[in-house]
Design goal:
The complex is a heterodimer. By secondary structure, chain A is mainly α. Chain A has 13 helices and no strands. Chain B has a seven-stranded mixed β-sheet with strand order 8-9-10-1-11-19-12, sandwiched between helices. A six-stranded mixed β-sheet of chain B has the order 14-18-13-17-15-16. The chains are: A mainly alpha, B alpha+beta. Chain A: InterPro entries: BP-dependent_transpt_permease, MetI-like, MetI-like_sf, OppC_N.
């Protein structure tokens, strides 16, 4: 009972507490800085870029890093530095798109499932079990291949596979809240399901969904890069980190910079989001709070 | 809890770094033993049926598994473009050039021990024409094969055909064991697609799709016992992985390496990069049946938009020569008075505007069987964007891409072509005759009645001067109509371990190895 109440309280985001926790956890701080850095660089890519990311210069192909090309050039003479900046837009947009889509759909389905119960609950949850019973990478590959190779389809495929995690999370939360005295009271006063969903269930599930979403961002960016790496994601000439690493593989023996820099960009971003996500979870997890 | 989190973080970072560094999966092999020759190829063969396959990549397997009536001559370790008898001991033509009689060599046997006789020759050619795919087109239609006696066979041609003897040295003219007919009721088509049944020095022992192909000596082969006891072809998609395995000695020959990798290999110990002048060209197909490419002005605009010099200087490091019309340098019949398209963006824009095709979308297919194709595709996309054409690139598996050439389901695509006999016929009749639409050779699906007429007339004539005149006229029309984008002609370069001996390069037999004569 005490635990549930604290959950309810924390749903109104407490930034003072958040800042205090952040200071206490240097790794989370590092993660946050990395994430902010990546977001700034990516949002202002046109400002920071030195070249048009798709402009080719065949005679300057595979040039090593220099003042003219900070990270060198690729096999048709495109500036790798500028391509990484613009490529980040693809990767990070996919991350947010997937988390938003999967989070929203999952929350709605999970809340309905938990609140209504009965046959609706059974149908939704069995459907989710089906999705979960297939190894997620295999399912993503199959979906992406069936939808056709493009970054949007890759994102859709990842989102579909991520939905059940949010459904389970929110449903569990909804089941607890549904039995709370205040919900029963609201019910007694003839509050409709929509009212209960809006005012009691959703606020109480916000925190875990945010934690899950933050954690998912990093892995989604990695997954999208992996799909592009095997050719199911971004298509030429679109700059995308995974695709750049993949093409760069052919040149890795003599031109390390081609896959090296986009690889580092993936590493940096995924690490940043993961550190930050872990930190946020620690902060919002009631069991951690006692420390 | 904290520890767990930390280790997860470390693991994640480590995993990401690994995925960056590892490059790609590389099949690990033990160093190649002395009696085994290992060849690294970028893509799996598709069909091993000599009556079906039109791809040198398949012929690496089929050519040494079969014998033909004729073969290319070798003199002082150099492959010539003239032919001599392989299974044929002697041959003569009638005065009108329509009847050819071949006497077969004794003691030649298929890999099941059956003797190669006139019946097998008749069966092979009858089968080739019954199946009627690309390879049959190397021979004129209406050929009648008759068994004169068990070791003598005669061919009756419906019309004279200048390159007849050369066509008999083609992969498609392979002599197939008639017993394949017992394998199902489809002329052995399904069986031969993944098996060999010939009298050549080697036969297929095992084929693990996408992995390895193993060939072993034909125990009944009529010639000398070869020094190489096993030929293994390993399929390795990435150029850098092929190169690494060559450096490590896991493979003896690495095919299809990009220019910069070859240059880096030249200075490595134990590796010899071979350089042979060849007649291989790289060109772009433009589907002449599909809008907007059905308009000659659009095709001309594209031909003017491509940065030929940039491709040669950049992607080939200067090791190539821009094509001038369809027939490569070094082949008779080439006419350099025809138009050679050079980059001229203004002119390209003008032509495109006059065709009203501004902003049109074109699908462009390529695969990674040739490492130069992807850079060419990206560069062409950028070049065409400059003049206002929107190119959508599609990278496909090689087999899928070739299927789409055959059905015409594409806009543009990359291609390589190398002749099977030293005759301009290879670069004209195949490319432009409307009978050969699709994989058979006319990959641009080009159609022009006048050109058809000229080509068929040229094939009938045995007067070289007259043929040259006809081919000149063809070249004028097809360059003016920009049937293809004629990119470049390039030396054939291949990297081998320096202990591989006896390889004979023949410009008619690209990707084909005379393994029976090789050793290491």
């Amino acid at each position: 009972m005490a635990e549930a109440q604290s959950t309810a309280k924390r749903s109104r985001f407490d930034f003072g507490y958040f800042g205090y926790q952040l200071k206490r956890s240097p790794l989370t701080m590092v993660g946050l800085i990395m994430v902010v850095l990546v977001l700034i660089v990516v949002i202002f890519a046109p400002v920071f870029a030195t070249h048009d990311p798709n402009a080719i210069d065949l005679r300057a192909r595979l040039a090593p890093p220099s003042m003219a090309h900070f990270f060198g050039t690729d096999e048709v003479g495109r500036d790798i530095y500028s391509r990484i900046l613009f490529g980040g837009r693809q990767s990070i947009a996919v991350g947010f798109f997937v988390v938003f889509l999967a989070g929203l759909t999952g929350t709605v389905l999970g809340a309905l499932s938990g609140l209504i119960g009965g046959r609706t609950d059974t149908v939704i949850m069995r459907l989710m079990d089906v999705v979960l019973s297939v190894p997620s990478l295999a399912l993503i590959l199959a979906l992406a291949a069936a939808l056709g190779p493009s970054l949007v389809n890759a994102a859709l495929a990842i989102a579909i596979v991520r939905i059940p995690f949010y459904v389970r999370l929110v449903r569990g939360q909804a089941l607890i809240v549904r039995e709370m005295a205040y919900v029963k009271a609201a019910h007694t006063f003839r509050a409709g399901r929509l009212h209960i969903l809006r005012w009691h269930i959703l606020p109480n599930t916000l925190s875990p969904v945010i934690v899950q979403g933050t954690l998912d961002l990093g892995s989604t960016i990695l997954l999208a890069s992996a799909l592009s790496f095997i050719g199911l994601g971004a298509q030429q000439p679109t700059a995308e980190w995974g695709a750049m690493v993949a093409t760069g593989r052919n040149y890795i023996l003599d031109q390390w910079w081609y896959s090296g820099f986009p690889g580092f960009a993936i590493l940096f971003t995924a690490t940043g989001f993961n550190l930050f996500g872990d930190g946020v979870r620690d902060m919002l997890d009631p069991r951690q709070k006692a420390r | 809890m904290m520890n767990l989190t930390l280790s997860r973080r470390v693991f994640l970072a480590g995993a990401t770094a690994l995925s960056v560094l590892a490059g790609g999966s590389t099949a690990t092999l033990a160093a190649a033993p002395a009696d085994t020759l290992v060849i690294a190829k970028p893509a799996d063969p598709q069909s091993l049926d000599p009556a079906v396959t039109m791809d040198n990549n398949d012929w690496t397997v089929t050519y040494p598994a079969y014998q033909r009536l004729m073969k290319y001559e070798t003199k002082d370790g150099k492959g010539l473009t003239s032919v001599t008898g392989d299974l044929a001991d002697s041959w003569e033509a009638s005065e009108d050039g329509l009847t050819w009689t071949f006497k077969l060599k004794d003691g030649q046997k298929f890999d099941d021990g059956t003797a190669v006789d006139a019946n097998a020759v008749k069966f092979s050619f009858d089968r080739l024409f019954r199946i009627g795919q690309g390879p049959s087109e190397a021979l004129p239609s209406g050929v009648e094969v008759t068994v004169v006696d068990p070791m003598t066979v005669s061919f009756k041609l419906g019309e004279t055909y200048a390159p007849f003897l050369y066509a008999l040295a083609n992969n498609g003219a392979a002599i197939v064991n008639p017993k394949v007919a017992e394998q199902g009721d489809d002329d052995g088509k399904a069986y031969l697609a993944s098996n060999t049944a010939g009298s050549g020095p080697y036969r297929l022992a095992n084929w693990e799709r996408g992995q390895t192909i193993t060939m072993e000596p034909n125990p009944h082969y009529g010639g000398d016992k070869p020094a190489i006891d096993k030929m293994r072809i390993v399929i390795i998609g990435e150029a850098s992985a092929r190169r690494l395995q060559l450096e490590a000695g896991d493979v003896d020959i690495a095919e299809a390496l990009p220019e910069d990798q070859l240059e880096a290999l030249e200075s490595k110990d134990g590796i010899a990069v071979q350089n042979y002048p060849s007649l291989r060209v790289t060109y772009l197909y433009m589907n002449n049946q599909k809008a907007p490419l059905d308009n000659a002005d659009v095709r001309r605009a594209i031909s003017y938009a491509v940065d030929y010099e940039g491709l040669i200087d950049g992607i080939l490091n200067g090791n190539g020569k821009q094509m001038h019309g369809p027939i490569p340098d070094g082949m008779w019949g080439r006419d350099e008075s025809v138009i050679q398209y050079n980059r001229n963006v203004d002119k390209a824009k003008e032509l495109l505007a006059s065709a009203g095709a501004d902003g049109a979308e074109i699908t462009f297919l390529y695969s990674d069987v040739d490492p130069n194709w992807e850079p060419i595709a990206i560069a062409t996309q950028a070049n065409l964007a400059e003049i206002g054409l929107n190119v959508k690139l599609e990278k496909l598996a090689n087999a899928t891409m070739r299927e789409r050439f055959d059905t015409g389901d594409f806009g543009m695509a990359t291609g390589n072509w190398t002749p099977d006999f030293a005759d301009p016929y290879m670069f004209t009749s195949y490319w432009f005759d409307s009978d050969r639409h699709g994989l058979a050779g006319n990959r641009s699906w080009y159609t022009n009645e006048k050109v058809d007429e000229l080509l068929r007339e040229a094939a009938l004539s045995s007067d070289q001067a007259e043929r040259e005149k006809l081919y000149a006229e063809v070249q004028k029309i097809v360059t003016d109509e920009a049937a293809y984008v004629y990119l470049f002609q390039k030396d054939y370069r291949i990297a081998m371990r320096d202990n591989v001996e006896g390889f004979v390069f023949n410009p008619m037999l690209l990707d084909i190895y005379n393994i029976a004569g090789m050793s290491k």
